[in-house]
Amino acid sequence: xxxxxxxxxxxxxCLLVFxxxxxxxxxxxxxxxxxxxxxxxxxxxxxxxxxxxxxxxxCINMALQDFxxxxxxxxxxxxxxxxxxxxxxxxxxxxxxxxxxNVQVQAIIGxxxxxxxxxxxxxxxxAQVPIISFSATSPSLTSIRSPYFLRAxxxxxxxxxxxxxxxxxxxxxxxxxxxxxxxxxxGVIPYLVDALEEVNVRVPYRSIISQKATDEEIEGELxxxxxxQTRVFIVxxxxxxxxxxxxxxKEIGMMGEGYVWIITDGMTNVWSLVNRLDMDxxxxxxxxxxxxxxxxxxxxxxxxxxxxxxxxxPSYVNANLDIFGLWVYDATFALAMAVEKLGTTNFNFDLxxxxxxxxTDLESFGVSKNGPKLxxxxxxxxxxxxxxxxxxxxxxxxxxxxxxxxxxxxxERGVGFWTPKYGVVKKLDFRNxxxxxxxxxxxxxxxxxxxSQVIPKGWEIPTNxxxxxxxxxxxxxxxxxxxxxxxxxxxxxxxxSGYCIDVFKAVMDAMPYAISYDxxxxxKPDGEMAGDYNELINQVxxxxxxxxxxxxxxxxxxxxxxDFTLPFTESGxxxxxxxxxxxxxxxxxxxxxLTLDLWVTSxxxxxxxxxxxxxxxxxxxxxFRGPPLYHIGTSYWFSFSTMTFSQRERVVSNLARFVVVIWxxxxxxxxxxxxASLASLLTVQQLQPTVTDVNELLRKKENVGYQDGSFxxxxxxxxxxxxxxxxxxxxxxDLNELFTKGSAxxxxxxxxxxxxxxxxxxxxxxxxTTLEPTFKTDGFGFVFPKxxxxxxxxxxxxxxxxEGDRMKQIEKAWFTKQASCSDSSTSVxxxxxxxxxFWGLFLIAGVAAVLALIIFVSDFLYKHKDVLRNTEISVWDxxxxxxxxxxxxxxxxxxxxxxxxxEGGHNAGV
Length: 910
What we know:
The chain is an alpha/beta fold. The chain has 28 helices and 30 strands. The strands form 7 sheets. An 8-stranded mixed beta sheet has the order 7-6-8-9-10-16-17-18, sandwiched between helices. Strands 24, 25, 26, 27, 28 and 29 form a 6-stranded mixed beta sheet that branches. Strands 2-1-3-4-5 form a 5-stranded parallel beta sheet, with helices on both faces. A hairpin with a 2-residue loop joins β16 (402-408) and β17 (411-419). α13 runs antiparallel to α23 (805-815).
């Protein structure tokens, strides 16, 4: 073996020592770099004994672990300072104060609910420390307008549009919210009610249940709901209280067919807190929950989270990650990113404003130096997290898509989605979606409570509820419509009679289900009506009556606060006037059948036709020749004698025959019409209205009548009548008495009222009639509260009664005419025949006559054109020559040739 010299061994040993020292320095430098991170204190306030607290802390720790494993080169590290709120508002406030004053945290994550968040948010605002909540969802927090509050969750009000869209899709007209009596429950209700009212859904009642309500208290409230008509309930409460309410509802029979239960995301977002046994009480429920888009990262995180959570909390067997865990995970990521971007090493508080004589802890903490910039960085942080797009808008997460679920079996299934842009959709594929829709066809099949697939109508008449309280007017007149025995106790049940009562009872018999009701008189203790009809209708609006039955007119301003059924009477306001007899039987009655313009037009046409016939026959017919006076007499004799078809003169020219045929047709129609009208005037009993129209009443300043308390008074005033000329009446007898007096003696010349009242008046009194025009109104209807689900069914029943024989029987019973009354509608004489009825005939006759004249003149001028062309004489001489030729016989006429032949034969025989 070769021996190494000692000198070389020494050099080698020195080299090894140097290498070791060098490696140690490098390792030390690397270790120093790895540990040179900046700790940043962050507070966490959670209830460590509850699910949300354990879930939140677990997700926060995993978020930090994942974040710094992805970004190991970052220089900042969030250090969690955990405080237990003990589920108490005071505990949460104390924890927040301790973290800000003693630890000087840069941000606080947590506070389990909205009640705890309020005070902590105020502390953060004062210390300029961002408060990030992932589970405080109440909309009331936004009203605080704190610049240092961030809601890393969705506002409860973001779901109200989705809920109202479901209610609208199934055309439910009423819904009752059931909510917990705290800030969490109360905060969303104004937004929910507004959303429902936007789709014309009425909220007749709000059911409030205490967080600490006993089973007896819950049962009492549910029994109250059972006595109401509404069967659509919207539940917004914590899972613990909700399960308690649903168990009692199932126990008393409110989970059967016909009921609708809609739950908010206050329960659907935390299904893991709902016991599987409680699911049996929720079969058929609908709900909305925040939609979480699927991703590989989310699936991987769920597996890792569940393994870690069960290791730390072995008592939770069926723990499942929910949306709140994802929100706090993403919020922690956002906070870590924002802190890293601060780029500072000074995370202390500014204590310059802290008073040395501070008497309370609220006066003894400073202000974060980095708070404003950190808040700005948090607000601008945007990324795609496990919960989807993470982006703060106005201090809270933006509204997203909601999934509509249906509870069946041991879980739930999705039946559709709701988006702010497209409304209700079956799936999230918007390629064939044109716009916003709330159609129920966009939802999959829903299994309703009672294991039914029949869509509930949303309301029922409760069999174990109160009977409908129906108000009826107390009338002094026109009791044929409603008759109530006066002087009864206003709070006692009455048994009214009358036309309106019989119609209502017939309508109730035609309803598809039984309705129990009682009548109550709207009267004072002295028996008088307790107000006018508007005040009676107001009682329905105030809730004192469930409906009003009587002669109540459908008027626009009333429909603003109550609903009317379809009218069950004829609609319109008419004018009634007296009629007088035999005014036309006098010496000049023969002139009455035709109006003056028709008489004048007929006379002019007789003259015109006579002239046309003379022109056409003068040169060819001996009967139309002779001295001038003979010409005139013959022409007009011929024309006027056509009225009786007694003319003896023959017409020989074809043009004249054409004119005569047309004229005889006109005369025939005219004479027959005249004869019929005159016969009617002379033989039929004549009843003529004393007033012809409203303008005549106004011109003569006559008095007019209206029913006391009726809206018709306003119509009369709008027509222009002076109030001093308007007299009221209360009954048919009062009206007849006013007519009997006459306008000059303090009575009236005409009366205005609705058709049903006037039909009754005319059935009782004979010497009156109605005149045009008829003022349009909507008739009588039954009154129900605004949005009442009964209105639609009652209206359908009204149509059934009107179209059947039952209505005819009721009208016959109450409106039968007296035997002594004849039908005035057939007795009132019609107006004289006017030119408007015959101008077409005169037009035909005139065109035929003018056409014949044109043809004749054209032919005459053509045959004697040589005279017209003779320029040797003046124009006037040529005209005189043409007239002279016209006055002569036409030698070429066959009538004269036949005469000459007969005369020549006679002379030859002689």
